[in-house]
Design a protein that fits this description.
Layout lengths: L1 H7 L4 H7 L9 H12 L7 H16 L12 H11 L6 H19 L17 E6 L2 E6 L10 H16 L4 E6 L20 H21 L5 E5 L3 E2 L1 H4 L6 E5 L3 E3 L13 H9 L1 H8 L5 E2 H6 L5 E3 L4 H12 L4 H13 L2 H19 L2 H16 L1
Helix pairs in contact: 3-6, 4-5, 4-6, 7-8, 8-15, 10-11
The structure holds coenzyme A.
């Protein structure tokens, strides 16, 4: 990493800021331009990882999906930048502009004095998430686009903390979405490949405790929680949707829970909520037989509330959420808590049972072999 940082320095952050003054046409041009100005005024260097994300979003917003030839391995700086841009896949220019604006807003927020939405009195910065509060909406954005937002142990912990802060802040609703072209590719499979201190059994037990706390954070979340599903979703990012209050998806999203393929078993209270929501047979197709649903199919079975065209997804969803966030805060929170209270104890028990089963599964040969196959297949590419 140190080498990456040294090599990126000549790239020239100032030049990037200057280049980014190029004129843009489009719906959110004013917001985008305002964000570019704010970027120039940042006092702290945000670090190379963030600068790469800014660069990639800027290219995607102004030129669309990466269409330039891949630089050679020896052209290291340009290769890293090209990879970052390429990792955004077919993300629309409008969504790239939106993510660019959100990213700059969150960077500026980190430098600003405490805002009312952060009652702890200090702004919290996360390594794997971007958090912003605007128009009474706290947005938690998964931010590992180059890994399709796969959830590492660090990200699980940060999500738990971000949900805790969002639950207590002054916002009316909270939204979770992803950076880049994926919503989330589920558990980071590298979580299973590290050589653990204290042995594999301890590792599985610790991972189980983390998962239990993670799912509990959703069960206990005290105000309306909205999923803004900006692309494909896999594994735990799908199973948890049963604990969201509303789920809006782009037509490009898919919903896949390949548990048995990985020798694992369902979590996120899906073993209870999915059959209840969609009927036992449809739930079994997903949770046992790995059936991947399109956004339209997920909407038919009740996992998704509404599907939007990719071209208008961001503007339609955020316009709607801004209107929801003008509703009385306490009324919304108390009503949500009433709905959740009916089954809260049951959900805790289901979470415990699912985690217990998963800890066993993680130690099974079936699971280890499936994960090794995933990485072996990648290494052959
Ligand atoms: N865990 C670890 N790494 C992951 C990941 C995951 N869940 N999902 C994606 N990645 C990594 C890939 O290994 C790749 O890393 P690399 O650039 O170092 O090779 C990078 O993210 C981009 O993914 P890639 O596979 O190249 O993109 P794709 O568009 O071809 O495929 C997926 C995307 C999500 C379909 C594919 O990565 C995948 O199947 N991931 C595993 C999903 C999964 O099984 N999750 C657990 C469910 S229980």
């Amino acid at each position: 990493m140190a080498a990456v940082i040294r090599l990126l320095s000549p790239w020239g952050f100032d030049r990037f800021v200057r280049d980014s003054k190029a004129a843009l046409m489009g719906a959110s041009v004013e917001e985008f331009n305002a964000a570019k100005e704010k970027l120039g005024a940042l006092k702290k260097d945000p670090g190379n990882e963030v600068k790469l994300t800014i660069y990639a979003l800027f290219k995607q917003a102004t030129q669309g999906p990466c269409n330039t030839p891949k630089p050679s391995m020896l052209d290291f700086v340009n290769k890293v930048k090209w990879d970052a841009w390429k990792s955004l896949g077919s993300l629309s220019q409008e969504e790239a502009r939106r993510q660019y604006v959100d990213l700059i807003t969150s960077l500026v927020g980190e430098e600003a004095p405490a805002v009312a939405a952060q009652p702890t009195g200090s702004t919290k910065s996360f390594q794997t998430l971007l958090i912003s509060t605007e128009d009474n909406i706290t947005t938690i954005r998964l931010n590992r686009p180059e890994k399709k937002n796969a959830i590492t142990a660090e990200m699980y912990n940060e999500l738990i903390e971000a949900l805790d802060l969002a639950g207590k802040d002054d916002s009316v609703i909270t939204a979770i979405t992803g950076s880049g072209d994926y919503y989330c590719s589920g558990n980071d499979l590298n979580n299973f490949t590290k050589s653990p201190e204290g042995g594999v059994e301890k590792m599985a037990k610790d991972a189980g405790q983390l998962l239990r706390r993670y799912v509990k954070a959703y069960i206990d979340f005290p105000k309306p929680l909205i999923g803004v599903i900006n692309g494909p979703a896999v594994g735990v990012s799908v199973t948890l949707l049963g604990l969201f209050d509303v789920v809006y998806a782009t037509e490009r999203a898919t919903f896949h829970t390949p548990f048995s393929q990985l020798g694992q078993s369902p979590e996120g209270c899906s073993s209870y909520l999915f059959p209840k929501m969609m009927g036992a047979a449809k739930a079994s197709e997903m949770l046992l037989f790995n059936k991947k649903l399109t956004a339209a199919q997920a909407c038919e079975v009740g996992l998704v509330t509404e599907v939007f065209p990719e071209s208008s997804f961001q503007s339609e969803v955020w316009t709607r959420l801004k209107a929801y966030a003008k509703l009385p805060r306490n009324s919304l929170a108390l009503s949500k808590q009433l709905i959740r209270a009916v089954e809260k104890e049951k959900l805790y028990a289901i979470n415990d049972a699912e985690v217990e089963r998963l800890v066993e599964r993680w130690l099974s040969d079936e699971c280890m072999q499936a994960i090794m196959s995933f990485f072996q297949a990648k290494s052959k590419l």
